């Protein structure tokens, strides 16, 4: 929590501080409510959730005259973020098979980095892990994942550049089955050339994996700094593959934490992990209360 607070202090923190200072004004007049709305919209909270939140704040602070704006804001923000969403990661398989985590998203969102950091978390929990470097279109991605594998101490299954991503995914899961590992994490290619192409590619990857073991989690990696553009991409991915969790990366460098709310609403899928930096330990489980506390500083 301390780290979350530190990381968000410079960027996200501005949102919480801005809202608090507006709500602490002596008179909550129309101008103030408008500024509150603007602040939320600027942080990518989205139109409908913003209106909802402002409505609740108005009722509680102005109509009902509750005295503690900070407490009210905290409660309402936590509700908005979803304190009761099931954010558990499904990394365990059944019938002696490994759990299979498929990691999808556009290039540059932070997929490969997330796979590396996730492997580290799983290893720290004493799980055995195999990684699949199925982003075969970018040699750099395969190299990058190999480096992560060495760093974390897990095997990385890879193929020559340009290999069919599905065949690498297949081999990775096979390797995981042979060695009886707990979890196989598969990095995928994120070329958003067109929806049909993406659907073919990810569909095939998923199908060949499922010849051996069910995919237990599909994580969509989304760059928090990309705003509406990122939301459009997220929608395309969610139409192509059944996303079960969102990883929001680069929250450390964005003042747009509202995207947590927007993307959950849009996709109906919870944010499960957040990326807070480029380092190996900079991936954290998402917790609504801790997140809002970090926002409010
Ligand atoms: P991919 O193309 O989706 O696999 O993206 P990469 O994993 O290669 O990441 C793209 C860039 O974003 C790299 O420079 C990463 O170090 C950086 N990155 C990834 N996650 C985070 C994060 O949570 N915070 C910050 N600041 N940078 C990140």
UniProtKB/TrEMBL annotation:
Keywords assigned by UniProt, alphabetized: Cell membrane, Cytoplasm, GTP-binding, Hydrolase, Membrane, Nucleotide-binding, Receptor, Transmembrane, Transmembrane helix
Membrane topology classification: Peripheral membrane protein
Keyword DNA repair belongs to the record: no
Primary location: membrane
Enzyme Commission number: 3.6.5.4
Highest taxon, organism lineage: Bacteria
Subcellular location: Cell membrane; Cytoplasm
UniProt keyword rRNA-binding, yes or no: no
Enzyme class, first EC level, given as a word: hydrolase
Domain SRP54-type proteins GTP-binding: 270-283
Catalysed reactions, semicolon-separated: GTP + H2O = GDP + phosphate + H(+)
Residues that hold GTP according to the record: 105-112, 187-191, 249-252
Residues of the signal peptide: none
Family according to the record: Belongs to the GTP-binding SRP family. FtsY subfamily.
Function: Involved in targeting and insertion of nascent membrane proteins into the cytoplasmic membrane. Acts as a receptor for the complex formed by the signal recognition particle (SRP) and the ribosome-nascent chain (RNC).
Subunit architecture: Part of the signal recognition particle protein translocation system, which is composed of SRP and FtsY.
The protein, known as: Signal recognition particle receptor FtsY
Organism from which the protein derives: Nocardioides taihuensis
């Amino acid at each position: 929590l301390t780290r979350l607070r530190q990381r968000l202090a410079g960027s996200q923190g501005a949102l919480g501080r801005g809202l608090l200072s507006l709500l602490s004004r002596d008179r909550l007049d129309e101008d103030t409510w408008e500024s509150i709305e603007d602040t939320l919209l600027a942080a990518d909270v989205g139109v409908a959730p913003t209106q909802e939140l402002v409505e609740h704040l108005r009722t509680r602070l102005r109509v009902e005259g509750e005295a503690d704006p900070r407490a009210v804001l905290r409660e309402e923000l936590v509700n908005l973020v979803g304190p009761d969403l099931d954010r558990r990661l499904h990394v365990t398989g059944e019938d002696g098979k490994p759990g299979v985590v498929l990691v999808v998203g556009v290039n540059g969102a932070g997929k490969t980095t997330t796979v590396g950091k996730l492997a580290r978390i799983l290893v720290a929990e004493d799980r055995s892990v195999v990684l699949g470097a199925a982003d075969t279109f970018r040699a750099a991605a395969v190299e990058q994942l190999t480096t992560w594998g060495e760093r974390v101490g897990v095997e990385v299954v890879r193929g020559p550049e340009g290999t069919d991503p599905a065949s690498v995914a297949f081999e990775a899961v096979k390797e995981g089955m042979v060695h009886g590992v707990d979890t196989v994490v598969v990095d995928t290619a994120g070329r958003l050339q067109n929806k049909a192409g993406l659907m073919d590619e990810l569909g095939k990857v998923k199908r060949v994996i499922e010849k051996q073991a069910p995919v237990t989690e599909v994580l969509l990696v989304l760059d928090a700094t990309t705003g509406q553009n990122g939301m459009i991409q997220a929608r395309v991915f969610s139409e192509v593959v059944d996303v079960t969790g969102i990883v929001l990366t680069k929250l450390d460098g964005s003042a747009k934490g509202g995207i947590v709310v927007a993307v959950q609403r849009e996709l109906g899928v919870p944010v499960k992990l957040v990326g807070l930096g480029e380092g190996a330990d900079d991936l954290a489980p998402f917790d609504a209360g801790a997140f809002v506390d970090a926002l409010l500083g």
